[in-house]
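fyi for ur records
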Amino acid sequence: MEKTVLEDIQERLASARRELEEELDRRIAVQRERFRYQMQQGKVRFEADMREWQARYRTGLWRYVTRGHLAYLLTAPVIYGLIVPLIFLDLSVTIYQHICFRVYGIERVRRGSHVIIDRQHLAYLNGLEKLNCVYCGYANGVIAYAREIAGRTERFWCPIKHATRAADPHPHFEKFLEYGDAEAYRAWIESYRRGKPFPESKS
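which gave:
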């Protein structure tokens, strides 16, 4: 069958996304050369003179705290209080995917691709700034990790697009079946029951 207009747009969006990701990788490589750091066994390694240069821009901890906004300090317990549900979410989705994804035959999500903690290697950050950056890296990484697990689960159980456009759908959403296409959904169910791989949207 001929591709629908929607499918054509989705393919072009996917192609544009791939091109942008490649451009981003090239720009990251340029920044590595500019700021002279390398990745060694998953860790960031700056050249010595670059670390010395960065350290000149570090604000002392006492000055950082005393000159900060009082309201920021008062809201810190609210922000850091979320560490408990975040750890629970991290543990829960990890256990979930190790049990259920094995049963469903879904490829498991690599946690390290989402939970990235590396800003503590920056010499221009003081101790509190490093702690904040570690926390933000962990919090946003766990949410992205959980989102990918949820996306793969949705793809397995209910791969149907919504009637309205989502603000920022997960990457699997583009391949979902069109909203209202009963024939395609039933064909997918039958295919799934015969153990065939997940089909693309009708084309």
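The chain has a mean pLDDT of 87. thats all i got for now
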